[in-house]
Structures are given as C-alpha cells and as structure tokens.
Design goal:
about 80 residues, single chain, alpha+beta, about 50% helix, globular
C-alpha cells in the first residue's frame, strides 16, 4: 500500500468516528484530496464536487468525499489541478 493510500485509509477511519456532523469544510476536503482549498472551490463551482452552501461557507458531505476517495472522480474527469 502506498503512503498516499495509507493516509487516505487513515482519513476514512477518522471520518467514520465523527458521524455527528456529516459535513466537512473545504480545508479538510483539500487535505484529503491532496490539493489546495482554492482547487476544491473551483471544483465545487464547476459542479465536479457536490457541496452545500451554508451561511458560513461551502461544506462537502463526508459520504461524497468517501465516494471520491474510494472510487475516484467520474471517468470523464481527472483529479489533476
């Protein structure tokens, strides 16, 4: 298992333990995907990542992040910046 895969596996376990809040901030999503928060914002605006707008900013459902980590992005898109 690669270092990145181990890191992502650890992150998934951590997400499972914090079920009370089903949403993640952009910084957390960015760390999990290995990109910047600005990249995550662009992906949300282009509808590549599903997100919900709250009065205090965008949030991504943990289940959506887990799906991306486990299955990758849809076939016609890559995760490159």
């Amino acid at each position: 298992m690669t270092t990145k895969a181990k890191s992502q596996a650890g992150l998934l376990k951590g997400l499972e333990t914090h079920i009370a809040n089903p949403f993640l901030n952009l910084a957390t999503v960015a760390v999990a995907l290995g990109v910047s928060s600005d990249t995550v914002s662009r992906w949300i605006k282009s509808e590549r990542i599903k997100a919900t707008r709250f009065p205090y900013g965008w949030k991504v459902r943990k289940s959506d992040l887990v799906d991306i980590l486990e299955n990758g992005f849809p076939e016609n898109e890559s995760s490159e910046e």
